[in-house]
Amino acid sequence: MVPKAAAPTDADLILAARTRQDRAAFDELVRRHQSQVRAVLRRLTKGDHGLADDLAQETFVLAWRRLDAFRFEARFSTWLYRIAFNAWQSEARKKKELLLEDAAVDHPPEIATPDGAPSSVDRVDLERAMACLSDGERAAIAACYYADLTHEEAAESLGIPLGTVKTLVLRAKAKLRARLAVKKEA
Amino acid sequence: MKHDHPNDPVEKWLREDASQGLPDAGFTERVMAALPPAQAARSRAWKPLLILGSTGMGVLLAITCAPAATAMMQGVADLYSFRGVTPAVLGLGAAILAAAVGGAILAAED
């Protein structure tokens, strides 16, 4: 039996796409990364799936145009998230002033956390709870959990200090814990 | 990201939610249909070269054909024979500089 050829890496596909304008290679890159990019944007847009998919499409089109600028210094997915965060920030600025760094960010979260947090929550409840977070908190959670970035990568992608990212994540988690526990009790 | 508190229920919910993949449902096809044509992408690399090349050709034509050609050619002759910075050399330099700056600005627009 002939062994099956190994699937091309992201780097192979990127090189094919940018040196030969190979659309099939870029098609494969989109298929590999669409799920996470769209999931991140759905969290950032408070569950607005239509807007999230529009921004995800804009992200991949920009990635295609700027593929020459990718330097292989970071993961391709990290580079994509940076474009996605910028697209979301531009969109959010059109509607209102985006506030990634909250004024009270220097203080630790002081949110009452009910005992007995539920063992599981459904996706809709989590989506609603996420929608109640501030822009900065939601962005930090999306970057660190949905995009799977380190705190340092998240700080770089979002353009905010590392300490702010850590505080935003802590505060967001405390808020989510409190909100979802209350929801379960109700 | 490494999770500091693996037993934290919020971390568990977030990890579970993030691990649920989204079906493609035609998304990739929509992206591919929205990409600019490959020819346009390729021509982006050639555009600055074409603009700068045609600017250089324009400068050559101006030097040889324009009414001020005599002064321009005098500038070239002065440069060739190391006569220093004569008015003709200054005029020639200014013409080339203006054309080059214009070409570079056009090329950088893309």
Features:
heterodimer; A: 186 residues; mainly alpha; Rna Polymerase Sigma Factor, Chain: A; Arc Repressor Mutant, subunit A; 8 helices; 66% helix; B: 110 residues; 74% helix
Task: Give the gist of this structure.
The complex is a heterodimer of chains A (186) and B (110). With 186 residues, chain A is mainly α.
Structure description:
The complex is a heterodimer of chains A (186) and B (110). Chain A is an all-alpha fold and 186 residues long. Chain A folds into 2 domains: 10-95, Rna Polymerase Sigma Factor, Chain: A; 103-185, Orthogonal Bundle (Arc Repressor Mutant, subunit A). Helices cover 66% and strands 0% of the residues of chain A. Chain A has 8 helices and no strands. In chain A, helix 7 packs across helix 8. The radius of gyration of chain A is 19 Å and the shape is elongated. Chain B is mainly α and 110 residues long. Chain B has a domain at 37-108. Helices cover 74% and strands 0% of the residues of chain B. Chain B has 5 helices and no strands. Chain B has helices at 9-19, 27-34, 38-65, 69-80, 87-108. In chain B, helix 3 (38-65) runs antiparallel to helix 5. The longest helix of chain B has 28 residues, at 38-65. Chain B is elongated and about 85 Å long. The two termini of chain B are 37 Å apart. The model of chain B has no long low-confidence stretch (mean pLDDT 76). The interface between A and B is medium-sized, with 37 and 27 residues.
